[in-house]
Design goal:
The chain has 406 residues and is an alpha+beta fold. The chain is 32% helix and 24% strand. Strands 1, 4, 5, 6, 8, 9, 10, 11 and 12 form a 9-stranded mixed sheet that branches. Strands 15-17-16-19-14-18 form a 6-stranded antiparallel sheet, sandwiched between helices.
Length: 406
């Protein structure tokens, strides 16, 4: 079952919501965040990326950075203003990008269920990133980032959602990335009760995006419990979308050098491993990857290296590419720690891969076919961990529209 709770959202006034809302803290670098907030003192990035308001070169993990986050949060609460809704509520959050549309339920989700494995994971987390967001939550006494969940679609939930979304929304705006954000409040009453009952019949939830935010919420709870604190820290702020609405884009790879090979030598080494032919920037199906090398695109037939009887994780395209090319030919054993490999979210397109190679920032790039939601759920159900940077969910939830005070 999925246990959900309404909460009193701290949220911006309708006339400033578009200016307050920001991309998640972890999809932009400090420099990119500084550029995004230029001319916008209301951007929530001042709270989630507080180092942007300190001198360049400031270590994002220094004490003064967290102190700046507290100051920025207080200033934004006054200036936006951010105000608490009068009573605990659920919220429906719709994202629309071109013809794609998805609507999810924003609520507080159980950290007990997270720790019991009923909210399922598919990624490992890094301790340093957990440390950062845990301290951020504790110092602000707020969950400012939203976890992105998915679940097997429910006709019952869809019916209630459709009814609520026929009413006037709290917010409706198009952000600078072209994504339209719409938010409805589900006040206490018949629809809220029906949503809670419907989610109680959802057998499991799956973390799509936000593993570090969820893990940090669990750690913050333990710290606050040990300190004898009181507050709403037994849950985590999240939006759950039905699986038939979420969209996964590929998470592409670039590698800085060819491990001593010339481009021609590397191409021949790949051909000794896999069938290679001239190709397009985007692979046409699962089992293919596109490779950009020396100004040309090639198609790699990954299926040729698929191992008989391998489990679902080892059959993923990113696993085959890692085993057959990145590890065997480029000597990249652990993509989490090797500085020679970097990742480019699918939303940036293949032009970003070409540019990285053409300007010499990388020697080769790989464009992947996206992992399916079915793969993600099946691997999570089995307790498996997907390779790093396997999925890029798009569009992204905005920070700043809903904050959960703990």
């Amino acid at each position: 079952m999925a246990s959900i709770r309404p909460f009193q959202a701290l949220r911006p006034a309708s006339e400033t919501a578009a200016r307050v809302s920001s991309v998640p803290y972890d999809v932009v670098s400090t420099e990119e965040a500084r550029a995004k907030v230029e001319g916008n003192p209301l951007s929530f990035l001042h709270v989630t990326r507080p180092e942007i308001d300190l001198p360049p070169g400031t270590d994002p993990h220094e004490d003064q950075v967290y102190a700046q986050a507290v100051r920025s949060f207080g200033e934004l609460r006054r200036a936006a203003p951010l105000t608490l809704d009068p009573e605990p509520s659920f919220y429906l959050y719709r994202l629309r990008a071109d013809s794609h549309e998805q609507t999810g339920l924003a609520a507080c989700y159980s950290l007990d269920e997270y720790e019991q494995g009923l909210i399922k994971k598919h990624e490992l987390t890094r301790r340093d990133k957990e440390d950062d967001r845990t301290r951020h939550m504790i110092d602000l006494r707020a969950q400012t980032g939203v976890v992105f969940l998915t679940y097997h679609a429910s006709a019952e939930v869809d019916e209630i959602t459709g009814r609520v979304c026929a009413t006037d929304p709290l917010y409706h705006f198009t952000a600078e990335d072209g994504v339209t954000n719409t938010l409805w409040r589900v006040a206490p009453g018949k629809d809220a009760d029906a949503l809670a009952a419907a989610f109680a019949r959802v057998p499991a939830l799956y973390i799509a995006d936000g593993h570090h935010r969820a893990a940090s919420a669990a750690r913050a709870r333990e710290v606050l419990r040990r300190a004898g604190g009181t507050g709403e820290f037994d849950t985590v702020l999240a939006v759950a979308f039905p699986d038939d609405q979420v969209r996964i884009l590929p998470y592409n790879r670039i590698v800085k050098d060819l491990a001593g090979h010339s481009p021609a030598e590397f191409l021949e080494a790949v051909r000794a491993k896999l069938p290679v032919r001239p190709g397009e920037p985007v692979p046409s199906r699962k089992g293919e990857a596109s490779m950009y090398l020396d100004g040309r695109w090639y198609t790699l037939e990954l299926d040729a290296a698929r191992q008989e009887g391998a489990d679902r994780i080892d059959q993923l395209d990113v696993s085959i590419l890692q085993r057959a090319v990145l590890a065997d030919l480029l000597k990249i054993g652990d993509v989490r720690t090797d500085p020679r490999v970097d990742f480019v979210g699918g939303a940036r397109g293949t032009a970003a891969l070409e540019q990285a190679v053409d300007v010499g920032r990388a020697a080769v790039a790989f464009s992947m076919y996206p992992v399916s939601v079915d793969d993600l759920m099946a691997i999570s159900d089995a307790g498996g961990i997907m390779p790093p940077k396997s999925t890029w969910f798009e569009p992204k939830l905005r920070d700043g529209l809903l904050v959960h005070l703990i």
